[in-house]
Amino acid sequence: MKKFIFIIVSILLFYSLPCYAQNDIGIGKSDVGSIVSLDLSYSFTSLNSHGWGIGVNYETSLKDKTPLSMLDYFALKGNFGHMTFSTEIENVYCTSVHLSLFINYYPLGNSLDKLYIGIGNGCDFMNYFGKGDLPDEKQDTLIHITPQIGWKFRVLPFIMIDVLLGYKIIINESRNHSGIRDYVNPGLRFGLNCLFLFNPLKNRSNSD
User: Fold this and answer.
1) Beta strands 159-172 and 187-196, pairing class
2) Which of 118, 161, 163, 193 is disulfide-compatible with 104, CB 3.0–4.6 A?
3) Which pLDDT band holds residue 178 (cuts at 50, 70, 90)?
4) Cβ-proximal residues to 66 (8 Å cutoff; 6+ apart), any chain
């Protein structure tokens, strides 16, 4: 049973299941202004370590939100994640909270369904507990930077595919548990995200 669950979650690795997306669809154009999604990569990492977790992403275009037109091709993406899992130390567990903020540049247009280049900074706050050999300090903070490149494209009016490649660089290591860095998945990262757009606006004619 555990093997079956592991296979299913592996298939869903890096998949995002958005709850809502705001769209502005017209003849000859397709604008996606914001996306809210669930991040199941936390579920995979924690389940693989006999725990549980979930993440939430929100990305919004800066088009018409600032007085600088040059920022119309940029978007901000925030992420919140939580995991509780078993560490490699016997009877020692960890609960973590992840926060990150990315800025993405869309050189081919100001919609969120095109090529993008981004960079983000994130923090993972770790808290150790249990009856095993706990570290002297029961809290840790890992800080990392992740450059990435990807492409979102729509395959149906309510479905997008997001293919991305990134590299997570940890700039502040754990002082208490050297093995904890493996749980934040550093290094090369490949993502294949399936984005389901809920409640898209209906097509409308372009009067221009």
Assistant:
1) antiparallel
2) 118
3) low
4) none
φ, ψ of residue 89 to 5 degrees: the values are -85, 130
pTM for the whole structure: 0.76
Q: In the chain, where are the structural domains located?
A: 16-196
The first and second tokens of residue 154, run together, are 């729509």
Q: Are 34 and 58 in contact (CB under 8 A)?
A: yes
pLDDT reported for residue 18: 44
Tell me, what's the pLDDT at 198? 52
- Judge contact between 36 and 20, C-beta under 8 A: yes
Closest CA to 176 of 128, 104, 143, 107: 128
Is there a contact between 60 and 76 (Cβ–Cβ < 8 Å)? Answer: yes
Place of tokens 């590299």: 167
Tokens in use for 36?
């809210």
Residue 28, pLDDT above cutoff 90: no
